[in-house]
Amino acid sequence: MTDFKALIEADTGQAARNIQILDVGSFEDWLKGQPETIRAIVKAYRFVANPDSYLLLPPVGGKSDDKLVADDFSVVAGVTDRNKLDAWSLAKLGGSLPEGNYRLQDASAKGTLFGWLISQHEFDRYKELPDRQGPSVLLVNDAIGQRDEAVRQAEATAMVRDMVNTPAADMGPDKLEDIVDKLAAQHGAELKVTRGDTLEEHFPMIHGVGKAAMRAHAPRLLELKWGRADHPKIAIVGKGVTFDSGGLSMKSPAGMMLMKKDMGGAAHAIALARMVMEAKLPVRLHLLVPAVENSIDGHALRPGDILHSRKGLTVEITNTDAEGRLVLGDALTLAGEEEPEMIIDFATLTGAARVALGPDLPAMFCDDRAMAEGLVQAGDGESDPLWQMPLWSGYDAMLNSEIADCVNSASGGFAGCITAALFLKKFAPESVPWAHFDTFAWRPAAKPGRPKGGEALGLRASWRYLQGRFGQ
């Protein structure tokens, strides 16, 4: 894991290269005030302060005797709006500048440190990457404690990315258990793992989905509890389908290519739980991860089968590729039995959400207006946007079954992410505010600080919301 703490240091006046932040609107005024040598360099490189652009400038001595000193330079960087810096404003710089110490000359670092940090993280488990010269270190005045918060967010985001990028052979249900077990040991939490006959008896939908992989990758429910019993209870649930073949409703080869990421919901939930514990948020945390592989053998779930659930509802299986909502259903039921103040779940649940909102916006469903508004505002504040979708009861009938209480997947293809969320709502407790994130957990094309591959979407928004609601 990248040592993010080493990438930010307290500014005590040590030697550092200055970074000047500009935007297109301020560029001309800045340029007019520069000596002729600098103006010539800027013109030669056609730098105009476009977003995510930067230029290294040599030092300039007297007007008549300019002197260049090797490795002694400053940086001028373009952003969208220098008066409205966000989490990604420094991402291009953090991931590109040469090794050394840097100081922002005339712009506050508040809110920008996360991008500087995460842009220097790379997934290198299976491939030797080209050597970097070394870390780019930002010097900051940490009077408001922004350094620790930025490191916490970067570590959690890197955790999600690395878990999602890891192939299923090295990220099965057992590995998810190992990760949660390690977190529990680090933070003095309790871990309970339910497997085998007990799983089948008490969590029949989790067992039903995972039973085809029983011999190689046995299904299990991971439960972590942490915090004082007299603190407000919160539950965080994550879909942990470590590989999704689609079951007997098999995916195409192209559809299976990214299915190592189907545990992206679990990665988000685990990372959010990690942040809660590391920050010692005054809550009683209940983390639930149903960990399964949706595989195929003679025991595989079949279309037309009827599954019982922990809640007592029966579910007719109309599509074995709609398995994530099944395992979440049992986990949400258990979460509600603890009577928490709120529940948040994360899942790579539907392609329909991606069709509706694309890869950057996770669909958020919430049955509590105040919680929904708080999450949206938190996402805007953290440059981690999300979009609220409707839990519209008018589509409930799409989940009707003639022989069971409901089907697991509506026919016809309409409102796919909404009907999936409505299915989950049947298992979420009515009296507890609940938010469901249908997140992609993947970035198909790179942006500064955001490489192609596993991605955390909605994680920092959720964390900021929890901080605002329960933080001291």
From TrEMBL:
Keyword check for Lyase: no
InterPro entries: Leucine_aapep/pepB (IPR011356), Macro_dom-like (IPR043472), Peptidase_M17_C (IPR000819), Peptidase_M17_N_1 (IPR048816)
Pfam families, per the entry: Peptidase_M17, Peptidase_M17_N_1
MF (Gene Ontology): aminopeptidase activity
Domain annotation Cytosol aminopeptidase: ranges: 319-326
Keyword hit for Protease: yes
Xref: SUPFAM superfamilies: Zn-dependent exopeptidases
Keywords assigned by UniProt, alphabetized: Aminopeptidase, Hydrolase, Manganese, Protease
Family listed: Belongs to the peptidase M17 family.
Protein name stated in the entry: Leucyl aminopeptidase family protein
